[in-house]
Amino acid sequence: MTARVAAVAMQKGGVGKTTSTLNLARAAAVCHQARVLVVDLDPQGNTSSTLAADDVAPDQVTVADAVVPDSDVALRDVVVPTIWELVDLAPATDTLAAAEARIAAASTGREHRLRKALAPVLGDYDLVLIDNAPALGLLLVNALTASDVAVLVAEPDQWSADGLSLLHRTLTGVIEYSNPHLTVAGVLLNRVRPTATSAELADEIATGVRNHFGQVPVWLDRKVPLWQGIPDHLAAGLGLDQGPAKLRALAEDTYRPIVADLLAAAEVSA
């Protein structure tokens, strides 16, 4: 069986894509004993700085080196260990922005650079999670082209609701031209506040998802609250399962079932 590949995506910044990627990776490793590869496809490199066991050196090979045209760097040579067992990382730095420009200048295969780079390592893992920048550019298209599913992360606010049509357009284009097997696993609502306005916006996002994406589920039963303890734990190199009871419950009730769905789909497709 080869790995299930999931792109964690939303073009709006600050919705918690990196946090979600890290927590999903942790849940896969701890709750399901799955072998996980996290691919950092954001030039900001926040996933890499949080997860890498050692600092990413300026001269170190990264994802950028593996996806640029005519590269002789294999993704396997990029992968490094992380602070968590069973989780590996393909790190990124700000060189990824220049790599995107080089990919864009290529005459052929621009959308398939990451898919090609990932192919040789898929047999080493159960799950690959791709963290993406808050943009709708060529790096996101590469991530979606390389993926089996997309996990969308939204904050219950008007900007996230308004951005669904743009993201839908990108996903539709990728499915039509690059990856006809891509599906959307669901929408995770993050940074949810205990207010009536937040609840109304969550319902609005659910309505927007139905209008744009059809039967794609919005996981209203798996909402992630706006708790400072979540990023604080990750910044300290700890999983939610290592935190107080409410964080452990969040890991168990929210991230574990999402990972279970992703892994179960991988077994069915195999």
From TrEMBL:
Any single Pfam family the record assigns to this protein: AAA_31
InterPro entries: AAA_dom, DNA_Partitioning_ATPase, P-loop_NTPase
Transmembrane region(s): none
Domain AAA: 4-183
Protein name as it appears in the record: ATPase involved in chromosome partitioning
Organism: Saccharomonospora piscinae
Organism ancestry: Bacteria, Bacillati, Actinomycetota, Actinomycetes, Pseudonocardiales
